[in-house]
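Support reply, case 0932

Customer input (verbatim):
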Amino acid sequence: MFLENLLFPKFCVSCGFLGSYLCPKCEKKLSYIERDVCLYCGFPSFLGLTHPKCQKKFGLDGVMSIFHYNNVLKKVIKCVKYRLSTQVWQELKTVIKPEAAEKILRLKRLKQKFVMQPLPLHERRQRLRGFNQSSLIADFFNLVLDLPIVDCLKRQRSTLPQAQITESRKRYENIRGAFRVGSNATVSKNNFILVDDVITSGLTLKEAAKELKKAGAGYIYALTLAKG
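Our regenerated output:
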């Protein structure tokens, strides 16, 4: 370990401090979400559940996130996704406060029995990257929730990262029709927790939820690491 650290020293992905991928100073800058809100109206909601008046036929029934998507977390997530550094994610996991796990555990209060579906990458991007960051995050959440992890949803079309598109209409066109339900998937009557790294407008998760509900899925909740 000493030789590894000597030959391949760790630098904080946020400030460049030597010694770790997330130094203590930057760790303190991680901003936890204390109050979840309804995705559709933005008003506070218990567990981020969609208010009855905001319900959509093929929409999400709730969203919960752990962090605000600030500059520190943005650099961490970009390092994992685009520099292919899963070690950074492993280090972030160790500093997430126990209160966050307790927050996730509140989902057990819901009566629905869930399966967990990481938001899929297109197979070409999955091959290039070698992993799906949503699957890594799902594994972490599942240490608390202990749910079956399924692979019912496929990304049938390679899309641009939504963060690179500023115009709302183009963001919608970019993600429309990107997902399909697998031919061997058992979706009908199942309730799903969709897992992704970041939610901003929610278009990607809404599109995924729409395809699952069209295939007969019941309740669909989203659980993300961060909210922009």
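We compared this against your earlier run and they match. Two observations from our side: The longest strand covers residues 191-199. The first helix runs from residue 2 to 7. Please reopen the case if you see a mismatch on your end.
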